[in-house]
TrEMBL record:
Residues passing through the membrane, by range: 25-44, 64-86, 107-134, 154-173, 180-200, 232-253
Record key words, sorted: Membrane, Transmembrane, Transmembrane helix
Stated name of the protein: ABC-2 family transporter
Highest taxon listed in the record's lineage: Bacteria
Assigned GO CC terms: plasma membrane
GO MF terms held by the record: ABC-type transporter activity
Source organism of the structure: Herbihabitans rhizosphaerae
């Protein structure tokens, strides 16, 4: 077994793992398909409701916000990508070989984080742009073009939000070392606990500082935007959560055996 302390060799090795592990590739593909497909479906249904002057349409409807409905579901797949990137090695037992090939655990972990960030950001940037444009086309006369209002800020910021959420999942996955457990924790937190907390009056003030709630402000405009946590502040809050999770992951990696 060759041993390497070269950062470039570590990055290359992590890139090869992503390309050869089907679950990680599948999660990235699902992120694109789900975001675009659900965005188009939402845009079409909202257009029909607006044409019919239905009461089902939110009074604070804004086409820019509608452009990210699909992305909010597609983020599930990027969370899964972050978890599987680290947990799949523990499941298969190949983590021992990885640790043997890269003696410095910090270097190995940094390589995973770097590759995860770059891949997630690239996939998210393409996905967000396609999903936003496709959703606006589906909205027809009710849609907006890229550049109107705060759409540029939202389209540029959304990939940063998704990439940070993916890295948060990397940290959680490294701490728990179980794909099933880490995915359950992340999915329940983002799609159950966080929405419930934000809808309960007594918890609403706290919920706005949760990572997903705060980070998502970068995509929201108008009445749906949080008056307390702005888009930049929200992204910084998510960044703080992500750094904490990654630090926790490193602490576990450094202290526990494979």
């Amino acid at each position: 077994m060759s041993v390497s302390n070269s950062p470039f060799a570590v990055l290359h090795g992590e890139w090869i793992k992503i390309r050869t592990v089907r679950s990680t590739l599948l999660s990235l593909a699902v992120a694109v398909v789900a975001s675009v497909g659900l965005g188009i479906l939402n845009g079409s249904s909202v257009r029909s409701a607006l044409d019919a002057k239905s009461d089902m349409v939110r009074p604070d409807f804004d086409p820019i916000n509608s452009g990210f409905v699909g992305v909010q579901f597609g983020q599930l797949a990027l969370i899964a990508f972050g978890v599987l990137l680290v947990c799949s090695e523990y499941t298969s037992g190949t983590v021992r070989a990885a640790l043997g090939a890269v003696p410095g655990r910090g270097l190995l972990y940094a390589g995973k984080i770097t590759v995860a960030a770059l891949v997630a950001l690239a996939v998210a940037a393409v996905t967000v742009l396609i999903a936003f444009v496709a959703t606006q086309r589906a909205l027809g006369p009710y849609g907006v073009t890229l550049g109107q209002g705060e759409s540029v800020r939202a389209v540029v910021g959304a990939p940063l939000y998704l990439a940070l959420l993916c890295l948060l999942a990397v940290g959680v996955g490294m701490m728990l070392r179980s794909s099933a457990l880490a995915l359950t924790v992340m999915f329940v937190f983002v799609f159950v606990l966080s929405p419930v907390a934000s809808s309960v009056p007594g918890l609403r003030e706290v919920a706005r500082y949760l990572p997903d709630q705060a980070g998502a402000q970068i995509m929201k405009v108008g009445a749906q935007a949080d008056p307390v946590v702005g888009p930049v502040a929200g992204l910084l809050i998510l960044l703080a959560w992500t750094v904490a999770a990654l630090a926790g992951g490193y602490a576990v990696l450094a202290r526990r055996d494979a």
